[in-house]
Amino acid sequence: MIHPSGFRPGDGRLTHELDPQDTGPQDACGVFGVWAPGEEVAKLAYFGLYALQHRGQESAGIAVSNGKQILVYKDMGLVSQVFDEATLQSLQGYLAIGHARYSTTGSSVWENAQPTFRATAHGAVALGHNGNLTNTGELARLAAERRTTSGAGDKHAMTSDTGLMTELLASYSDRSLEDAAAEVLPQLRGAFSLVFMDETTLYAARDPQGVRPLMLGRLDRGWVVASEQAALDTVGASFIREIEPGELIAVDENGLRSRHFAEPQPKGCVFEYVYLARPDATISGRNVHAARVEMGRTLAREAPVEADLVIATPESGTPAAIGFAEESGIPFGQGFVKNAYVGRTFIQPSQTLRQLGVRLKLNALREVIEGKRLVVVDDSIVRGNTQRAVSKMLREAGATEVHLRISSPPVKWPCFYGIDFATRAELIANGLNTDEIAKSIGADSLAYITLDGMTAATHQPADRLCRACFDGVYPIALPEDELLGKHLLEISVDPLAHTDALSRP
Question: Which reaction(s) does its UniProt entry say it catalyses (predicted)?
Fold first, then answer.
C-alpha cells in the first residue's frame, strides 16, 4: 500500500552485507527523471534504474505525479526486488523520478532511501541525489534557523544530505519550487547531480564542478535525464547533451528551460572513467570503455612483465586487461568464471564460511591458468582484500606466477564527493609501499599506472578532473574534520554550534 504521504513502510529495515570478497570502492548513486505525457513513466523509470543498478544496490525508489499528487514507492534492495508489475501499475502519471542508492551520507536504512518527499506551501517536492555534500553542517544550521523562524521543515529530514536539501527546498513558502531551487542550489557545496519534481515539473541540476555525470535525452513525447547514457538508450531516448556544471533545467508543458545558478568550474571525477561508470558510458565526449582499454595499453608500456597470459579481475578489470594484452603481445584469456546471478546479498555468511572464504562471485578456471605465469589486471586496490583472495585462488588453481597490474594509481585519500572508500587509515597504500603490498596480497609483483598515464587516457585536461583520491588535491573546499563523516547528520551534533567552522582546501 502507498500511504497518502507518498511513502510505503518497508517490509523490513535491513542493514546490508556485501559478498565478503567485495570490499572495493562502493559506487555513487544513480538518478533518473522523465517527463512524458502518454507514456508509462513508472515503467520507464524502472528500466532506467535497471540500467543504473551498478551505481547503487542498497535501495531503490520511484516518485510519480499525475499532475495533482505525488506518490513515492521505495524500499531496501535491488530495483528488481523493490518493484513488481502491480506496484508499477499503481504508479500512474506523466512525470517520474527514480533513484538507486549507495549510501555516502546517512546509514543504509529505509528512512534514507530515495526519492525523499516533503510537503511545501504549494504542493510537494520529491528529490533524488547522486553525490555528497561537504557543507552539511552549515546547511543543517541554515535549516534549523529556517525551522525556528518559519516553522517550516522536519528535523527527521536531516539524517542525510538529500533529506536536508529537500527540507530546504520545501521551506520557502513565498516562492515556487523553481525559485526556491535558485535560492538553495548556490548554497550547496560538494558534488550533486539532482533530479527533483513537484506535481507538474521535472527539474535537474548539477554542481558547478560537474563531479558526477548527468545526461539529458529526448523522447518522441518528452524528456529524460539520467546519470549515464545507457539509461537513455534503455528507454529509447536519444542523447542530447550533458547537463552543464552549475545548470538547472526545468521541463513542463511549456517545454524545456535552463538557467545557470553558478559559474561552471569543471572537475569531473576521474574514477568514473576508472571504475564507476558503465563501459558503454560516454563522459565529456570520451567513451569509458575506450579510456579503460587505453589505460591498459599505458600500463603495459609503463610496467612490462614477462608472462604467458593476461587475465582480468571481472568485470571491471576486463577493458584494461584487453589493452594490456594488445600492447604487450601477451595473449588475453578468461581466468575466472563469474556467477552472473549473484548481486548484493543481505545474508551474512557464518563464521565457518568466512574462514573458508566464501566464493559467491568468482571461481578460477584451472584448465586455463594451471602452469601459467599470469598478469592479472584490476582497476584499483582499496584495502587489498579482493586482490588477496584472487591471488590465493590463482595459486590454488596452479598458477606459477601472479603479477598484479592496476589501471589506476594507489588510492591514498578518501573521497568526500560521492564514493564511499575506506577511511585513510584503512587504505592499504597508506600503510605499505608497493613491494610490501605485493607481499601482503600474495603477488610476485605489483605495479600501478601513473597518475599522468591514467589522466591522458581520459582525453581530459588534468585541470578539468578531480583526482583527489589519488593526489589529495580536493577541488571543493572541505570543512573541519568534526563536520565531515557519513553519519554526521545522524549523531548528536548541534548545527548551531559550528557557526565559525572554517573551510580548508
Answer: 5-phospho-beta-D-ribosylamine + L-glutamate + diphosphate = 5-phospho-alpha-D-ribose 1-diphosphate + L-glutamine + H2O
Topology given in CATH for the domain delimited by 30-267: Glutamine Phosphoribosylpyrophosphate, subunit 1, domain 1 (3.60.20)
328 is in an annotated binding site: no
- Report which secondary-structure segment, H or E, holds 403: strand 401-406
Calpha distance 300→450 (Å, rounded): 11
Q: Nearest CA to 16 among 61, 48, 56, 50?
A: 56
pTM: 0.87
Residue 337 φ/ψ, nearest 5 degrees = -100, 130
CATH of domain 287-458: 3.40.50.2020
Helix or strand (DSSP H, E) at 430: helix 428-431
Catalytic residues: 29
**220 annotated as a binding-site residue:** no
Per-residue pLDDT of the chain (505 residues; tens, 9 = 90+): 343 333 333 332 222 223 333 445 555 699 999 999 999 999 999 999 999 999 988 899 999 999 999 999 999 999 999 999 999 999 999 999 999 977 544 455 566 789 999 999 889 999 999 999 999 989 999 998 887 766 554 554 456 789 999 999 999 988 999 999 999 999 999 999 999 999 999 999 999 999 999 999 999 999 999 999 999 999 999 999 999 999 999 999 999 999 999 999 999 999 999 999 999 999 999 999 999 999 999 999 999 999 999 999 988 899 999 999 999 999 999 999 887 666 555 555 565 655 455 567 788 999 999 999 999 999 999 889 889 999 999 999 999 999 999 999 999 999 999 887 768 888 999 989 999 999 999 999 999 999 999 999 999 999 999 999 999 999 999 987 655 554 444 444 443 333 333 222 2
The grid coordinates listed for 317 are 578489470
Report in angstroms the alpha-carbon separations of 31 from 1, 60, 97, 192, 263. 24, 10, 8, 11, 23
Cα–Cα distances (Å) from 84 to 50, 95, 114, in that order, read: 13, 19, 18
**Domain spans in the chain, listed from the N-terminal domain onward:** 30-267, 287-458
Report the alpha-carbon distance of residue 247 to residue 411 in Å, rounded: 31
Is 90 annotated to bind a ligand? Reply is no
Q: Using alpha carbons only, what angle is made at residue 453 by residues 450 and 458, rounded to the nearest 5 degrees?
A: 130
Contact 250, 256 (CB under 8 A): yes
What are the respective helix, strand and coil percentages of the chain, to the nearest 5? 35, 25, 40
